[in-house]
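@channel anyone free to eyeball this complex?
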Amino acid sequence: MIVNGRPIDDDPRPGQCLRTFLREQGWTGVKKGCDAGDCGACTVHLDGTPVHSCLFPAIRAAGREVTTIEGLTLDQLALHPVQDAFLAAQGFQCGFCTAGMIMTTAALTDEQRADLPRALKGNICRCTGYGSIRDAIEGKPRVKTDTIMVNGPVVPAIGQSVPAPAGPDVVTGKAQFTADIGRVSAAASEDADAPPTAPLHLKLLRSPHAHAWISSIDAADAMRLPGVVAVLSYEDSPAAKFSTARHHNADDDPYDTLVLDRTVRFIGQRVAAVVAETVGLAEAACRLITVDYEALPAVTDPVSAMAPGAPLLHPAPSVTPCGDPSPYPAGAGNVCTEIHREAGDAEAGFAAADAVYSATFRTQRVQHVALETHTTIGWRDGTGRLVLRTSTQVPFLIRDEVCRVFGLAKDLVRVVAKRVGGGFGGKQEMLTEDIVALAVLRTGRPVQLELTREEEFTAATTRHPMEVTVTLGATGDGTLTGLALDVTADTGAYGNHGPGVLFHAIEEAVTAYRCRNKRVAARAVYTNTVPAGAFRGYGLSQTVFAVESAIDELARALSVDPAQFRRRNLIQPGEALSNGSGEAEDVSTESIGVLDCLDLVEKALADGRGLAAPDGWATGTGIAVAMLDTIPPGGHLGRSRVAERPDGKYAAFVGTAEFGNGTSTVHRQLVADVLGCEAADVLVFSSDTDRSGHDTGAYGSTGIAVAGTATVRAALALADAIAARAASGADARDGKLLEAEGYCDGTSRSVAFTVQGFRVAVCAATGEIRVLQSVQAVDAGTVLNPVQLRGQVEGGVAQALGAALFESVVVDRAGRVVTRVLREYHVPVLADLPRTEVLFASTVDPFGPFGAKPMSEAPFNPVAPALANAVRDATGVRFTSLPLRRDTVYTTLQARAASQRATSQEE
Amino acid sequence: MDLNTVTEFAPAATAAWRDGDAWLGGGTWLFSQPQPRLRRLLDLQAFGWTALTETDHGLRIAATCTLAELARWRPARAAYAPGALLGRRCCEALLGSFKVQNVATVGGNICLSLPAGPMTSLTAALDGVAALAGPDGGTRRLPVAELVTGDGRNALTPGELLTHIDLPAPALAARSAFSQLSLSPVGRSAVLVIARRDGDGSCVATVTAATPRPVQLRFAALPDRETALAALDRAAPGYCDDVHGGGAWRAAMTRRCLARVMAELAGEEEPAH
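replying in thread with the prediction:
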């Protein structure tokens, strides 16, 4: 086989696919997104023909020429035109799909380029929403890639569409993700971020029972298999309980999880871990382990879990590491968290109303499907420290919890994240690091664990499914008189993020509207199903779907325009927010851009641009509003260090993590603006516990609002130091290089808004919903980087449309996940999505760096209700459950038509 | 993905089939999910079969013919042009991308026997006959519409190999109509209906994707809409009901697609939405 012009001597294994063979040979630009031919991240050319290398028998490539992203141009000085085009359009965010996108695009015929929806149906991008990818393929640049001016004036970096610094590495396949260690030679590696020797591989034996006690495990046969190094089970687990959820305040989540537990609480939970020389041996050893289970009664939905006499998932009281009673579970039985609030008198409010609307809305389980699965490689470095190279949003929080669980001092553990292939909240969890740490400590050797796509669906986390009953009342002039929410969230077998998501779900969805009478009842319930966790929007998308749908109905009932109804009732600048608890909120409402956003969206929809409706289809428009506090409550630490470099440039060491959200680019701009240099003269190093002080990490949309503020403060302090040096007459060339630190505690919070508008056409005969126009206006404060912000919004809308139209992790009554591959869990491909127009309101945040507000999660939240409101406008039918799949839409419209016929016959 | 239990890769021509073996066509399904029972892959490429053999009797499609090869087929006999066009449309109906179609085989798609398998749709609709070779050296022929017996089930016995499919000349030359729907624009087929009108005026409609196995409705002459739908009702096929489409919707969409293909064959304009 010839790979990228080089002959390969090694022979593939009989059952090996081309993907892993190429990666073993060091061509790590070939990615694993699904390992099943669905996502296209592993695309290579075989004698010029593109194939999914994960499906191709490696032996069949013998004697043929293989081209990977690394060999697309053999001339190392110039990029392939498609690579140039992806750079110019910034057709990537996390970059994990990019090699496959480029390899596919490079092989398209003109005919295929003319029909991209079909040509790209085998390529999934989870970040961009395909807008910038389409632009790349169609040759429409979004940034100038030649902005470096020699000896020219320095351009202020803020507000410029500075391209992502990692772009050139991403489009050439050089960017290193966690698993991309290439060929580790037997000799000690020079790279401190790579294991010194090739790692052992870890595979997990998982529970086939929804609820069971492990009476015994016999691993003797597995241990006898040559190449098996260790089998770990509950007997090897540290006794310290933890939560896979990682938060600034560790006590935010119940301490209900062990590295390896003797009780299994969902199908897919870890039972044992095998560490072996190869993945195949580890798998074989898993099959040789005999486990005797004592099956326990299981509950797989919140209603049965809350029924009297239901089996308890976590009967023992939960305590914090200090030995205090844990605040969670705070409810009875299987209730993990329960919240009751009332301000004013909601019933009196409804009694005073001219119209009251009440309905129950249901949202489904959805999965992040970050294209890079959870992956950790652990080893001991030369000084004996435990190093975890891992795909995480929160390296410091992982470090701290590994230290606590294993009883290690903080200076004995280092956690480092390389480029992270998408997160969306799914990597604000400790799902792989703990078990790898145990394996490294036990074997003393480097160990790698890479979850499969199936494990992501069955044993990682999902969004919390919720049932939300909302009741709204208003007087005839459209003034809200009462607002009540009753929320039941299914947190699955463990309480990771259960309390946090529940508190957040009933926060901004309630505080966004002024109303004297508010009542909230909410509970998160344990069930014997795959755990829910953090996911972009963090509970709000579920309740916003309910509230914004109900607002639309109430306005209609009162014959008030829904946008006008919102203008009348939304929070006004300077007003105090009320979540019903009666406590004062620590959130500033000084800057509120929602009226701007509403105007922009209404104007765009009125213009009617977009696609024309097919003949005979019903059409309608809909909008929805979402508010997001700019920083999570309870504090969030950002720490950065900015330093002079010997080459005259600057280095920014930031604690936060970049996972496709573009923060590295913005940090570079922030430093450049403060220090008056070009953005290209700032090098950003992130997510390494060795390189900056403790930083809470990247969640809650804090990469700019908190971490960016810390970076600005570090840069300002450095600028002061440089000025002082100059004033003292010292020569910079002689003195030592200066550096300064910056810190932000994330306690100054404000609000940001997003408004989504849709014009849709609905075919009653098939149930198809076609989006004719999609527009989102965002209250992002000062726009630091327009192209990146646009990409974030496009991607958020796309991910939300997937959840609104297609996606559902189906769990059967026994608690088994049915949708285990991407062929059964449909995430949007290019063909599924409209172009989304992104508009910016003119606001300035009082706290964010240069007045910027966060915009990572917020774009997701208003999408589903705006779509449902547009469908309601088109069809007259209110859909209260997601997703709005064609078969559901069809049968619902049919049932409605049948009942209308019956009614008219009676009359 | 890697099939780590496989320890042997052997040319199919010389190997005797045994438990733990799998015939390797393109591998696009075999390598797409764990196959812990497999020990040996038997490489069908070793047979060196000619992908497509066109004769006056029709078209012989080797089991190892890729979908891309079939889609590129331009028949030497102008009469077969309708069959070639239908073949292209069915290749496009595969959920897998054009990159999968570069590797996936016609035989593999049929033997997988998924309701949405478009090669089952094509070859059943054209009254294709499958040639099967048993491990004992015996051979038999079976219409594709009878080979596929359910969702992921077929009439193949252990070790039996599909070697090729014969599409008869009259069916290739027949005027046909195609209608397909799924839950998303380029998603997995939830219903796929092909109707064909032969030279003798007879007509056959083949329903796949919506039903666990192909359902064929035969008419001596082109039926009107009501006659066609009544025949579907009489056939009373069970409908698939899963994440690729609810049963009631699939039933309704089958009626819709059937009406459309019959209208198209009758030369009527496509019914408006």
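from a first look: The longest helix of chain B spans residues 247-265.
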